[in-house]
Design a protein that fits this description.
about 400 residues; about 75% helix; extended
């Protein structure tokens, strides 16, 4: 959709300079008039295109966290909502995000609620975000809700970054191992193979095995790469289906060490998010639906949706959770106590704090376990290849001696 840069006067005589998306210039002017803006000048902004078209900055989790924290601070200080959005849109370093905030501001100025304006951008503002904002608007406590939302997003971003950081080293080691072994097999081993063939004689079994693998990789390296890419693509497509996602997610939960980490992350995210939603005034049924959608694991999602159905039938939340293999007995018991005492949101917060520490310990354990295992694996593979290539050389040296 074309973008039009305009200058005009808003209600009260305030000068306005901004941009608006519209199909035509006439439609843009009509939209601005409906917002009470008298247009002085308007022209279509030319899109700067690079080699692959218009370049847009991606909006990261950090951008959203910073925006939410700053917005919460401004609202708490008593600034009007529209003014907060205008300031944040102007000072945002990410131009794409700044433009999006400007669009939200214009929607709010035209009479749309802040929550509904955010819902127009679901790829940036999740259902959790927009529903918490809506609860804050309805309850007249938007400043408190935004503070809670900022805390929630910061904790979620910290957890996500922690898990990513833990996987950087193992991923790098596996990548280096694949590259080193491929180089040895495709370019180095053939040199030794030709030398051994020219020398004649019977080669040891390990050497014959390595040469056979090298010959296979030389002939089918392209096929292997295509098969690997096709396999990953097929796995991605299968994971996109409901049945495939359920099977793969269930398998991930059963993996040693990794499965335990995934379960703890799911419990921490569920309790933290659900507790924040309840504190913000979101109804329990709607809150369960939201946390189910953002769980990221189909098994966890099904367990939460089953619990939601039971709650809708007048049963307790803890009973269906106890029947799932996701939530540990301690978590279920604490939720049961929270329901009985009428302090479920506070109890969920305590569980989340406990499992944040559990996730820290699980990530540290996973890292300490994977590092030596990967080093031993890499050393064994490369060491076997080197020994297999040097055995014939030692044999020839003995014969010459």
């Amino acid at each position: 959709m074309p973008v039009f840069a305009y200058a005009g006067t808003a209600r009260g005589g305030k000068s306005v300079t901004a941009e608006i998306n519209a199909d035509t210039r006439e439609v843009a002017i009509e939209q601005l008039r409906s917002q009470g803006i008298t247009v002085k000048s308007i022209e279509e902004r030319k899109k700067g295109k690079g080699l692959f078209g218009e370049r847009k900055q991606s909006i990261s989790d950090k951008d959203i966290v910073v925006f939410t924290r700053q917005f919460a601070t401004m609202i708490n200080a008593g600034l009007p909502l529209v003014q907060c959005l205008e300031i944040l849109a102007t000072q945002c370093d990410n131009k794409t995000f700044g433009k999006l905030i400007g669009e939200v501001k214009m929607d709010v100025e035209s009479g749309t609620t802040y929550a509904d304006a955010l819902k127009k951008h679901p790829k940036v503002f999740s259902s959790l975000y927009s529903n918490m904002v809506q609860a804050g608007e309805v309850g007249g406590a938007l400043d408190v809700t935004m503070q809670r939302l900022a805390n929630q997003l910061e904790k979620a971003a910290k957890l996500k970054a922690q898990v990513k950081a833990a996987m950087v080293y193992p991923t790098a080691i596996v990548g280096v191992a694949i590259i080193v072994v491929s180089v040895l097999m495709v370019w180095v081993i053939p040199i030794f193979s030709k030398m051994f063939t020219d020398f004649g004689g019977t080669l040891p079994a390990p050497t014959l095995f390595v040469i056979a693998v090298s010959d296979f990789m030389q002939q089918y390296i392209v096929v292997m790469i295509i098969a690997a890419v096709a396999g990953l693509y097929g796995l991605k497509k299968y994971y996109a289906t409901p049945g495939g996602k359920l099977q793969i997610d269930a398998l991930m939960l059963k993996l040693p060490v990794v499965g335990d980490l995934i379960r703890k992350i799911a419990v921490a995210q569920f309790t933290r998010t659900f507790g924040t939603l309840l504190q913000s005034g979101v109804p329990i049924m709607e809150g369960l639906e939201i946390v189910a959608r953002i769980s990221g694991n189909k098994v966890v999602e099904n367990a939460i949706l089953d619990a939601r159905q039971n709650v809708g039938e007048g049963k307790t939340l803890s009973d269906p959770l106890s029947k799932s293999a996701v939530f540990p007995p301690m978590v279920v018991q604490m939720i049961n106590v929270g329901e009985a005492t009428g302090a479920l949101d506070a109890m969920l917060g305590k569980i989340a704090d406990f499992y944040d520490d559990e996730v820290d310990a699980a990530v540290a354990a996973l890292t300490s376990l994977l590092e030596p295992m990967l080093m031993v694996f890499l050393g064994t593979v490369i060491g076997f290849i080197v020994i297999a290539m040097y055995l014939p050389i030692f044999k020839m040296a003995a014969v010459v001696g």
